[in-house]
Amino acid sequence: MKKIGVFFGTGFEEIEALTVVDICRRCGLEVEMVSIMGTPTVTGSHNITVEMDKMFEEADFSEYDMVVLPGGGLGTQNLEAHAGLMGQVDAFYAAGKYIAAICAAPSIFGHRGFLKGRKACCYPSFESHLEGARVTAGPVEISDHVVTSRGMGTAVDFALAIAGIFCGAEKAEEMAESIVYSKAK
Questions:
Q1: Helix, coil or strand: residue 70
Q2: Helices (H), strands (E): how many in the chain?
Q3: How many CB atoms lie within 10 A of CB 64?
Q4: pLDDT digits (tens, 9 = 90+) for 57-100
Q5: What pLDDT is recorded for position 146?
Q6: Which of 14, 82, 91, 158 suits a disulfide with 149, CB 3.0-4.6 Å?
Q7: Where are the alpha helices (DSSP H) in 32-113?
Q8: What residue segments make up the domains of the chain, in order of their start?
Q9: In this structure, what DSSP letter does residue 169 have?
Q10: For residue 135, which phi and psi values (nearest 5 degrees)?
Q11: How far are the Cα atoms of 47, 89, 97, 178, 182 from residue 100, in angstroms, in the given order?
């Protein structure tokens, strides 16, 4: 079974993080919610506190097939300031393992030079941080092993794209139908 680590810092965007956890678990993927804050609960940008599955120090990155970074302005700052997490993100990128980020968090990939020559998207006010990317307004961009998305309004697209990577497009379409989701036209 494929395994995904979703990393939570104080100020994370709740819908972006939890939509990935929910949809991927519904698809049968193993998903761990991991605190980078040194506490077993993390509070999001709208004062919703979530109990984590693991602390960063307990996470076994060798088990993960993907690392997911939710957005939120403060949440993104906390993720990027965590040296241990950034070391793992760098290692995943270098190894060609999947990394994914939504909203403000793709700026981390831009700052690390991961987006040069790639299509990428993020929250509109963070587009200048996507250094070297071909910035799009698409809801999700998948460029090899790098996945980016724009924000809360694209969280379902983002989660379904991640599910599609590991479960196949047909399973992702079945999931979209089962949650009564249809793309805007």
A1: coil
A2: 6, 11
A3: 22
A4: 999 999 999 999 999 999 999 999 999 999 999 999 999 999 99
A5: 98
A6: 158
A7: 73-81, 83-95, 106-111
A8: 3-178
A9: H
A10: -75, 130
A11: 24, 10, 10, 24, 22
